[in-house]
Write a structure and sequence with these properties.
This protein has helices spanning 27-36, 59-64, 127-130, 137-149, 163-174, 193-205, 250-253, 296-314, 356-379, 391-399, 417-423; strands spanning 18-23, 42-48, 52-54, 70-72, 81-85, 88-92, 97-100, 105-107, 110-113, 118-119, 131-133, 155-159, 178-184, 209-212, 218-221, 225-228, 233-235, 238-241, 245-246, 264-266, 278-280, 285-287, 328-332, 338-343, 349-355. It is α/β, with parallel strands linked by helices.
């Protein structure tokens, strides 16, 4: 991989080829950048605010002290991809240039928008001031010393009953921390009831106090407590906020069409409804008004397909509609146990799950396998030529009057189960 660089010169191509810039070096962005290198006449630049790849699915381990949650880009990024360590502050679609926080501009012929997601605005009094979010590397790094500095017996409150909340609560409880998990309506809303019972049993064995129900919603966060909607006061030396996800407002600030969460609106080929030279992937994409659950599982499928849309555009070919299918949701419940919740292709939990030590091993294999998958695409870009298919998505698109290749086509506002969970702050 080339040395980190900045400025407009990084997209120059001496052979007069096509310059493609990818914004965001997460799961989707890295997959897209690697895939693009299969054409020798394409210059690929990745703009990312950090010099290392973040294993976001391990951030709870960083907080618990069992993993750094970062990987050297040399292990996952193709040598031909040039890494620019900076932040894009504005997209000038008309001029095909990006303004960087460092003051430089980067030009492009095609742009892949893969800025990912982060913590949502909690909109709860005191939460922004006194609670610690955990959706980004910097947030997790800020939380780690706060947890370490608290006495072992000090109460820790985790807000949010989705995967991040469950994993963080289990990780800290296994260390001997006194943890309360505030779930809102229900623990693990994605899970099948059988899987939910298994998670509840593991949390109970670890000593986690689970607070859930209609009144178990946070009304206020203070320096040393969490107050619930029913008036209960939970003492809390450290409050961790995992409820809900949001996306950067870069697209909206740049005048591009976005959905209500700020995700870039695209058609079913991931092409922006505003500009055929802009393609989106990952958590920040809203294809056909039916966005997928924010997850690395979706990102590693959307990233390479976004790249294929760009490559077909360069070749003057019609891009193909995306194919994305889900398999499961996997949770670590501390270092010794876990849960693999099997799911249908349209992202609905099934009755079957795998728990215990086997579930923990599967979770670890998935974490390692995801990094391996990124590296494999770097070494052999374009080898994978098939994708899992969800026939129900095609049915929803047809019912909404969309053919999948010409913008929103009336599908605006149509949501799948996964999209609803994200909007309601229940998915991770």
């Amino acid at each position: 991989m080339a040395e980190n660089v900045q400025g407009t010169d990084v997209v120059a191509n001496a052979q007069g080829g096509t310059a493609v810039v990818v914004i965001g070096g997460g799961y989707a962005g890295v997959m897209a950048a690697n895939r693009l290198t299969q054409r020798a006449d394409v210059t690929v630049t990745l703009v990312n605010p950090r010099p290392a790849f973040v294993e976001r699915i391990r951030l709870h381990q960083l907080v618990g002290g069992s993993h750094s949650a970062v990987v050297d880009y040399r292990k996952v990024l193709a040598e031909r991809v040039r890494l620019v360590v900076d932040t894009v502050t504005r997209i000038d679609a008309a001029g095909r240039t990006l303004r960087l926080a460092g003051g430089d501009e980067v030009g492009y012929d095609y742009l892949v928008y893969a800025v990912g997601s982060g913590s949502a605005d909690p909109r709860v009094p005191g939460a922004a001031e006194f609670a610690y979010p955990i959706a980004t590397l910097e947030e997790a790094e800020r939380l780690r010393p706060a947890v370490a500095a608290a006495p072992a017996s000090a109460p820790v409150t985790v807000v949010g009953g989705g995967p991040t909340g469950i994993e963080t609560a289990a990780e800290l409880a296994e260390e001997g921390r006194a943890v309360t998990l505030v779930c809102g309506d229900v623990l693990g809303p994605y899970l099948h009831p059988k899987g939910r019972r298994a998670v509840a049993g593991r949390l109970a064995a670890l000593g986690v106090t689970v607070v859930q129900g209609a009144d178990a919603k946070v009304a206020e966060v203070t320096r040393d407590a969490v107050r619930l909607a029913d008036g209960r006061r939970l003492a809390s030396a450290v409050t961790i906020w995992t409820a809900g996800f949001g996306v950067p407002d870069l697209a909206a600030r740049s005048g591009l069409s976005t959905d209500e969460l700020g995700r870039l609106r695209t058609d079913e080929t991931l092409t922006s409804v505003d500009d055929a030279r802009i393609v989106a992937a990952g958590d920040s994409a809203a294809p056909s008004g039916l966005p997928f659950r924010m997850s690395c599982q979706a990102a590693v499928q959307l990233g390479p397909q976004a790249a294929e849309t760009v490559l077909r555009g360069i070749a003057g070919e019609r891009p193909a509609p995306i194919d994305v299918a889900f398999v499961s949701q996997c949770l670590s419940l501390g270092r010794r146990k876990g849960l693999l919740q099997l799911a249908s292709k349209d992202d609905v939990a099934k009755k079957t799950h795998v728990g215990g030590w086997t579930g923990a091993r599967i979770k670890e294999l998935i974490c390692k396998g995801t990094v391996w998958q990124l590296g494999y695409e770097a070494r052999k870009p374009g080898v994978r030529t098939w994708w899992g298919k969800d026939p129900k998505r095609a049915e929803l698109l047809a019912a909404a009057g969309a053919d999948g290749t010409d913008g929103m086509n009336g599908t605006d506002g149509v949501e799948g189960a996964g999209a609803r969970r994200v909007r309601e702050g229940q998915a991770a």
